[in-house]
Each structure stands twice: as structure tokens, then as C-alpha cells.
From TrEMBL:
InterPro entries: Diguanylate_Cyclase, GAF, GAF-like_dom_sf, GGDEF_dom, HAMP_dom, Nucleotide_cyclase, Rev_trsase/Diguanyl_cyclase. Residues 203-255 form the HAMP domain. Pfam families: GAF_3 (PF13492), GGDEF (PF00990). Keywords: Membrane, Transmembrane, Transmembrane helix. The chain crosses the membrane at residues 14-35. This is Sensor domain-containing diguanylate cyclase. The keyword Membrane applies. It comes from Actinomycetospora aeridis. It comes from the Bacteria. Gene3D superfamilies: 3.30.450.40, 3.30.70.270. SUPFAM superfamilies: GAF domain-like, Nucleotide cyclase.
Length: 581
């Protein structure tokens, strides 16, 4: 018995025949279109353009001849002028004929026509103006002879050109008929082969597949019996053998399913741990709480020791933030350089890194906490007694690290946002909002302990003129330098604020107006000296001072009195300190 034919061989044979037929048809079609586009159409266009040029030349020659004969009959130079104007038309038509009618059977006739035309122009047109009256009759007779030659040459050229056009059209029609016949023959042969291939596929594929489908339905209903032998292609025979092996394998998978269920239960518990941790940190903006919850979840997943490291703000190293064996640690109690050890490598390259005990490293795996494209920390998990942290446990730690990184970054951003809400971004001084909180606290403390306190408000003199002259960018630099002067001059417990625009304030707790006036005068001198350039004074400041309880009984009144004293300093000539009174 002959071995069964392979299904792929049947399909490939049928596909190859159909593909070749399709390729032949495509080649014939493309060749026909290409030949038409590159040969017949351009040749036909050139012949028709040449025919139009021949007719244009004949019209121009006949018109010129009529005008010159009118001149000879009347002597009116108007007709000579009009005839001269038609000379370019004759030349253009002659050039078009020579450029387009270069076919072997046409070009000699065109040359004869051009020669006859030039003889007519040289022997008659060029001499018409110099013919004496007594020789007009003879001159006209010579023109008639030249014109007859021209017409004969024109007729011969036109006839040759029309014959060439007709011959070209006949060749195109013959080629099209031939290609249609060839295409029909190829398509018919391909159709016959395709029908024969369909019949063979029905015998070798469809019938055996029906038998195999019946066996598959039995397996799906739980009847794990091998299918009956099939006759057909080699692939279907192999498929039957595969189904028989599958029934045997299905019996063995029943036991494996139970083991899989147990492993899935373990994974479910780990995912539940991650979910609980996610819920706990989702609404928290406390960095320490997020770190603690992350470490606890990692310990539950790995059953081993877990350390959490955070990258310092300057990115130079990592600090140990939490150790599951010791709890939360003070900042910088332990640190780790980047690219050093298992933790340093993970932070430096943003990849999971495993320690090499043979190289003296801890038996641990480090998983980076990546936010965006930046590593903000590392979760270090030590191997448990059950074995290394790998597989599903490592995947769970990766998920924990991703969630924890985002939560820690969010808590840091929240802390930074709170700081920005209380500090001026340009000068880095506390802002007006922070002044309100600090002032209320200082007033309450002063009243509770019956101690004095003071407020200084200062304004930069003619700051608008400086801004207009040097630009707002330079004005911002000046504000930053003034802020630096204030920070360098205040003592412990005293706080400088940016009150708004070019106004600043200094809160002086536990000091009366006299001490505040002394501080304000020292600040005024510092500003005056720092902004003096030779003989030119670039900037000065005016100060107002008020004290509690001498000038006011609460914080709002204290600010108002200090502000009123500031305007008194302005009105008194600026660059001075005025005390509320």
C-alpha cells in the first residue's frame, strides 16, 4: 500500500499551479499596459502631434502665399507685413514635424516636404519685395511652380503619416486580441486544475476530518477512548495519533489539577496580601506608614527578612528606611552607595539584582521601586528557609515595589506641595499664609507669658523704576538678594517673610519695639551697603516697626500699625526706619 499523500503537498501543488496562472495573467496584463504606456501611446501621440504640425504648416504656407499674391496685385505693403508675421508659425510647425515624425517610412517624406517648403520660402517669399513691376507675371509663374512642388510634397508626407498611424493602430489591435486569447487559455487551465484539486481535498481531507471530529466530541463528553484509525493525508493520520496520546495525557492531568489548585490558593493568598496593602496605602500620604505597610506585605509574601532602601534626594546613595527585623530606622543610620552590592546595582541600573554569596554578598534579591523612568528606592528580600525568592514570589514583590514606589512618591510630592504652599518659590522665604499662622501662634504665646513681641515690615524703595530700567528678570535677582540679606541678619526665633511684591516682613518674638528698631536699622544699613555700586545707590529700603502690647492688642492690629509706620517712613523720604506711634 502506497504511503498516504501529505496534505501540505496537495495544497502546495494546487496553490503553485493557481499562483503560476495568476502570475502569468498579471505579467501579461502588466506587459500589455507597460507596452501601451511606454511604446504605442507615445508613438501614437507623436504621430498625431506631427500630423497637426503638418496641417498647421500647410495652413501657414497657404495663408502666406495668398497674402504675398495680394501684395503683388495691389502693391500694398500691409500684406507683406501680415505675411512676415506668419513666418514664426511656419518655423514652429516645421520644428514640431522634425521632432515627432522620425519614423523610417515617414521621416524621408517630411524631409522632402521641409525642403520644398524652404525652396518656396527662398525662391519666392524672400524675393517678393524686390520684384520689378515688369517681371511680376514671370515671378508669379515661378511661385506657382514652387507651390505645386510644395503641395505634392505635403500630400506625400500626409499620406505616409496616415499610413503609419493606421499601421500602428492595427498592430495594437492584433496584440490585444492575442493577449486576450492567451489569458483565456491560462485561466481555463488554472480552473480545471483547481476543480481537480478540490475533488482530491474532499477525498483526503473532509471525510477523515468528519471522523476525527466525532472522536473529539466523544473526548469532550468524557469518553477518553482513542479514535478509530483514519485513511487520508499524512497530517490527519498524525492528528489521529496525537488525539490518542492526548487521551492518555488527560488522565494524568487530573492529578496535576489538584496540585495546581493548591498552588493557586497560595498565589491567591499572596495577591490578597498585596490587595490589603494597596488599600492601606492608597489613601495615605504618610511616607513612614507606606514604608511600614510595604515591608509587612513583602514579609508575608516571601516569609523572609525584608529591608527597604530609599534613594537620597541628590541621588548619590541609598539610606535604609526600614528593616523587618529592627523596624523603622532613623535616616542615614545605614547607607549604601550606588552600583555597590546587590542593592546598589539594582538602584543604579533599575533592574532586579541577586546577591552572590560566593562573592561575599548576602543571599538576597533586590527589586527596584521605579516611578516613571526614575528609581526612588529598593526592596531587598532575603531568601527564606524554604528557598530563594523567585518565581511567583518574586513577581509579587515586583508588584509590591511598583505600588509602593508610586505611593511613596505621592507622599513625598504631598509634603513638597505643603511646603510650597507656605514658602515663596522665588525667595524661598515663608509666605504671607505662613506669616498669618506664625503670627497667631506668637501673639497667643506672648499673651500667655506676658512677654513682648514686635513686627517689622519693609518695602524696597523705587523698585518699580528698577524693574522698568533693568527688566523683571533682574528685579527677581534683586528680590532674591534682599531675601538672602534678611536670612543672614535674623537670629534664632526670628523669621523673615515675603509679604508680597517688593514688601517683606520680619517676626520678632520676645523682643520689644526698641530691639526691633535696632534690628530694622541693621537691615536697612545692610541693604544700603549691599546695593551700592561706587557713587551710585541702586536700591534702598524703608522700614516700619510696631510692638505688642505697646502699639496693638492682636496680630491683625500689629500688622496694620507696622504697615502705617512703613508708609510714614516712605513719606518722610524713604531709606529710613519709623516706629509706630
Amino acid at each position: 500500500m502506497a504511503p498516504p499523500q501529505r496534505l501540505v503537498t496537495e495544497v502546495e501543488r494546487l496553490g503553485a499551479i493557481v499562483s503560476v496562472a495568476a502570475l502569468v495573467i498579471v505579467v501579461i496584463t502588466v506587459g500589455r499596459l507597460s507596452y501601451s504606456a511606454l511604446v504605442t501611446v507615445p508613438a501614437g501621440d507623436e504621430l498625431r502631434v506631427g500630423l497637426l504640425a503638418l496641417e498647421d504648416a500647410q495652413d501657414a504656407v497657404m495663408g502666406t502665399d495668398s497674402l504675398l499674391r495680394a501684395y503683388l496685385a495691389t502693391g500694398d505693403p500691409y500684406f507683406v507685413d501680415r505675411a512676415t508675421e506668419r513666418a514664426p508659425e511656419i518655423a514652429a510647425a516645421e520644428g514640431a514635424m522634425l521632432a515627432n515624425l522620425d519614423l523610417p517610412g515617414v521621416f524621408p517624406r517630411v524631409l522632402e516636404l521641409v525642403a520644398a517648403q524652404r525652396d518656396w520660402q527662398a525662391g519666392w517669399v524672400g524675393q517678393v519685395a524686390s520684384v520689378p513691376p515688369q517681371d511680376v507675371a514671370a515671378f508669379v509663374a515661378r511661385g506657382d511652380a514652387l507651390m505645386r512642388d510644395y503641395r505634392a510634397a505635403s500630400t506625400a508626407a500626409r499620406s505616409a503619416l496616415l499610413d503609419a498611424i493606421e499601421s500602428l493602430d492595427g498592430s495594437v489591435r492584433l496584440l490585444q486580441r492575442s493577449l486576450i486569447v492567451v489569458t483565456a487559455l491560462v485561466a481555463g487551465a488554472a480552473l480545471m486544475v483547481a476543480l481537480r484539486g478540490r475533488r482530491r481535498l474532499l477525498e483526503h481531507v473532509v471525510a477523515p476530518v468528519d471522523g476525527l471530529l466525532a472522536s473529539v466530541r466523544g473526548i469532550g463528553e468524557g469518553r477518553l477512548t482513542p479514535p478509530e484509525p483514519v485513511s487520508g493525508s499524512a497530517e490527519l493520520v498524525a492528528l489521529r495519533d496525537g488525539l490518542a496520546q492526548m487521551t492518555i495525557a488527560l488522565r494524568g492531568q487530573h492529578e496535576e489539577t489538584a496540585a495546581q489548585a493548591e498552588r493557586l490558593q497560595v498565589r491567591t493568598e499572596r495577591l490578597r496580601t498585596i490587595l490589603i496593602m494597596t488599600r492601606e496605602i492608597a489613601g495615605s500620604l504618610n511616607t513612614r506608614y507606606v514604608i511600614d505597610a510595604t515591608v509587612q506585605a513583602a514579609v508575608a509574601v516571601t516569609d523572609g527578612r525584608v529591608l527597604l532602601w530609599l534613594v537620597l534626594e541628590d541621588g548619590s546613595a541609598l539610606e535604609l528606611a526600614h528593616d523587618s527585623d529592627r523596624g523603622q530606622l532613623s535616616p542615614m543610620e545605614e547607607d549604601c552607595p550606588l552600583a555597590v552590592g546587590v542593592v546598589g546595582r539594582s538602584a543604579r541600573y533599575g533592574q532586579i539584582s541577586r546577591g552572590d554569596p560566593e562573592a561575599g554578598e548576602d543571599p538576597a534579591v533586590a527589586v527596584p521601586m521605579v516611578v516613571g523612568a526614575r528609581v526612588i528606592g529598593v526592596v531587598e528580600c532575603w531568601d527564606s528557609p524554604d528557598g530563594e525568592v523567585d518565581g511567583q514570589r518574586l513577581s509579587s514583590v515586583e508588584m509590591l515595589a511598583t505600588l509602593a514606589g508610586s505611593a511613596i512618591e505621592a507622599s513625598r510630592l504631598h509634603a513638597a506641595t505643603e511646603r510650597l504652599s507656605e514658602f515663596d518659590p522665588l525667595t524661598q522665604l515663608a509666605n504671607r499664609r505662613r506669616l498669618g499662622v506664625d503670627l497667631d501662634r506668637a501673639v497667643a504665646d506672648a499673651k500667655r507669658h506676658s512677654s513682648p513681641m514686635s513686627m517689622i515690615i519693609l518695602d524696597l524703595d523705587h523698585f518699580k523704576e528698577l524693574n522698568d530700567r533693568y527688566g523683571h528678570q533682574q528685579g527677581d535677582v534683586v528680590l532674591q538678594e534682599v531675601a538672602a540679606v534678611l536670612r543672614g541678619a535674623v537670629r534664632d526665633g526670628q523669621t523673615a517673610y515675603r509679604w508680597g511684591g517688593e514688601e517683606f516682613a520680619v517676626l520678632v518674638p520676645h523682643r520689644g519695639p526698641d530691639d526691633a528698631v535696632t534690628l530694622a536699622e541693621r537691615l536697612r544699613v545692610r541693604v544700603e551697603e549691599d546695593f551700592r555700586r561706587g557713587d551710585k545707590q541702586l536700591l534702598t529700603a524703608s522700614f516700619g516697626v510696631a510692638g505688642l502690647p505697646e502699639h496693638a492688642g492682636d496680630g491683625e492690629a500689629l500688622l496694620s500699625e507696622a504697615d502705617r509706620a512703613l508708609y510714614a517712613a516712605k513719606n518722610a523720604g524713604r531709606n529710613r526706619v519709623e516706629r509706630a506711634g
